[in-house]
UniProtKB/TrEMBL annotation:
The active site is at T419. The lineage of its organism: Bacteria, Pseudomonadati, Pseudomonadota, Alphaproteobacteria, Rhodobacterales. Cleaved by autocatalysis into a large and a small subunit. InterPro entries: GGT_bact, GGT_lsub, GGT_peptidase, GGT_ssub_C, Ntn_hydrolases_N. This enzyme consists of two polypeptide chains, which are synthesized in precursor form from a single polypeptide. It comes from the Bacteria. This is Glutathione hydrolase proenzyme. Pathway: Sulfur metabolism; glutathione metabolism. GO terms for biological process: glutathione biosynthetic process; glutathione catabolic process.
Length: 597
């Protein structure tokens, strides 16, 4: 983070006094705000939304709103919404642009989960556009010759990690169910930006610089991100004619143009011939891909119901378990400045992650106690474990009610932060929450026709068994890897009150749960809630966000018995609160905005 953007972040997070921030800003005033200059081409409304975020205030609107990780993508969605399009229409436009301007995080070569609130029916629907393991995978795909788990990076870079992408079909399915706008036109902003060129953002440039070595593994990817051998810099104009051509085909022929024909052929060939690390994807895997409607997972929290994506995502179940346990404690009375709040949140998270590691995976392939995990009586017993006054010394999976003998071993899998989140509310009252990914930053590093291919298969456990007992999230043909993505819609009296989600690997769960607590229990507006300093516990150390007041809890949490680690915590929360008006918040740690009218 540059010094100036750090100051902006501190201000927007309410973590620095204006005077201290002003003094720091004065030192480097001539550069002005670099994120504003990179986005100098965006509309005045988008610039105002950026400025609001940097001042720590939410965006407000009467009719519609869209929040996502890049102003160019948000503008594309806003134009659709202003023109009478639905949240599903706007999502297509946003995703198409994100795949161009934030290619490291999501795109056509990846997958996504979508939660939809339908204003007409009052129903919540969840769509699973997760990447899928090719039919030819074997249990040893991520193991060395002697049966040990591969080194993570040896697995990621190349064709081995590529699952059948789901995002193009998810875009089409959402549009077919809930769209009003003409499909092809939704790609126009992305096609124009790809052909005319867009300004490389600071975040994209720094991601390229940080990942330079792996990003140059394959020549097509290297040529795009390192034209003439030099890394792209913030402010450069980047043209992606291949991406424009790909989008034109999808705009004209729908997702079929992606799953069959020349694009599909190129994807398969690229995966199967990746030098040094080929994969097993075939044309059949692409032909048979399908988006799956799943039952939403909804868990009561205070006066609300928190709804999200069930298996193969662990998101809604784990967020739901954390909140379900915390629902038995008065966090509002304790407040955010009290270490006792963080003891409860930290250990509720550890207990939920213990269950996640044992039980959660693709329920089409392994039996899961999905209902038992969030049943009220079970959450009572898990919450009772938090009754003490120190960190738990033993954190083990529980025994939720289940019609199945427990035959599963604990999972070991690595999930590094990448991904992107889109929140949208349209003028008809529909709400959309979609978290979208190619897994690791720049995915498998393989590029085809202007987009990157995912490495989502590394979200599977590399080991299939532990001491002879099967691991739920082991790789199997046609299975979808367990995710942490937590696109969420909170309902109050059956109507949406908050649309939220984040990138961040398995920390997504903590980011989303904490922001919901901050908004509901601690009365923060959405901008404060997404900007708030992070304290995140998964199943090990208590991670405290460096450079913020979170680090001041180090002593207290250590004294309570937690192992504490101060580090960067790079969420990308985008949220819309729905009340008398719409209020939007965009995470100051990333480049996005919330924009509405
Ligand atoms: N690959 C990130 C996730 O699915 O959680």
């Amino acid at each position: 983070m540059t010094r100036l953007s750090f100051v902006s972040f501190m201000l927007s997070a309410g973590l620095a006094t204006p005077l201290a921030a002003q003094q720091a800003t004065d030192d480097i005033a001539p550069e002005a705000d670099s994120s504003l200059s990179v986005f100098a081409t965006v509309s005045e409304a988008a610039q105002a939304a950026l400025a609001a975020k940097q001042a720590g205030t939410p965006t407000t609107a009467e009719n519609w709103m869209v929040a996502a990780a890049n102003p160019l993508a948000v503008e594309a969605g806003a134009a659709v919404l202003a023109d009478g399009g639905t949240a599903a229409d706007a999502m297509v436009a946003v995703q198409a642009v994100l795949g161009l301007v934030e290619p490291q995080s999501s795109g056509l070569g990846g997958g996504a989960f979508l939660v939809w609130y339908d204003a007409t029916s009052g129903e919540v629907t969840t769509l699973d556009g997760r990447e899928t393991a090719p039919l030819a995978v074997t249990p040893t795909l991520f193991q060395t010759d002697d049966g040990e788990p591969m080194q993570f990076w040896d697995a990621v870079v190349g064709g081995r990690s590529v699952g059948t992408p789901g995002t193009p079909m998810l875009m089409e399915e959402a549009h077919a169910r809930w769209g009003r706008a003409e499909w092809g036109g939704l790609f126009t902003p992305a096609i124009s930006l790809a052909e005319d060129g867009f300004t490389v953002s600071e975040r994209l440039a720094s991601s390229i610089a940080d990942g330079a070595e792996r990003l140059q593994t394959f020549s097509r990817t290297a040529d795009y991100f390192f034209p003439g051998g030099e890394a792209l810099q913030a402010g450069d104009t980047l043209v992606n004619a291949d991406y424009a051509n790909t989008l034109r085909l999808i705009a004209a022929h729908g997702s079929e143009a992606f799953y069959e024909g020349p694009i599909a052929d190129d994807i398969v060939a690229t995966v199967r011939t990746a030098a040094g690390n080929p994969g097993v994807l075939t044309a059949t895997d692409l032909e048979i891909y399908e988006v799956i409607e799943r039952d939403p997972v909804c868990v009561p929290y205070r006066t609300t119901e928190v709804c999200g994506m069930g298996p193969p995502s662990s998101g809604a179940l784990t967020v739901g378990q954390i909140l379900g346990m915390l629902d038995r404690y008065d966090l509002a009375a304790l407040g955010p400045d009290n270490a006792e709040s963080w003891r409860l949140i930290g250990d509720a998270s550890r207990l939920a992650f213990a269950d996640r590691g044992r039980y959660m995976a693709d329920s089409d392939f392994v039996p899961m106690p999905t209902e038992g995990l969030t049943a009220s009586a079970y959450l009572d017993t898990r919450a009772a474990l938090l009754n003490g006054d120190a960190a738990l010394t033993e954190v083990a999976p529980g025994a939720p009610e289940w019609d199945h003998a427990m035959l599963l071993a604990d999972d070991i899998s690595v999930e590094l932060p990448s991904t992107s989140h889109i929140s949208i509310v349209d003028q008809y009252g529909n709400a959309l929450s979609m978290t979208t990914t190619i897994e690791n930053g720049f995915g498998s590093r393989l590029m085809v026709r202007g987009f990157l291919l995912n490495n989502e298969l590394t979200d599977f456990s590399f080991s299939t068994h532990s001491d002879g007992i099967p691991i739920a999230n082991r790789i199997e043909p046609g299975k979808r890897p367990r995710s942490s993505m937590s696109p969420t819609i909170v309902l109050q009296d059956g109507e949406p009150s908050l649309v939220i989600g984040s990138p961040g690997g398995s920390r997504i769960i903590g980011y989303v749960a904490q922001a919901i607590v901050a908004h509901i229990d601690w009365g923060m507006d959405v901008q404060q809630a997404v900007a708030m300093q992070h304290l995140v516990n998964r199943f090990g150390t208590y991670d405290l966000e460096e450079g913020t007041d979170a680090a001041s809890f180090e002593g207290a949490l250590t004294a309570l018995g937690f192992e504490v680690n101060v580090r960067s915590l790079n969420s990308g929360l985008h949220a819309i609160a729905i009340g008398e008006t719409l209020t939007g918040g965009a995470d100051p740690r990333r480049e996005g905005i919330a924009l509405g009218e």
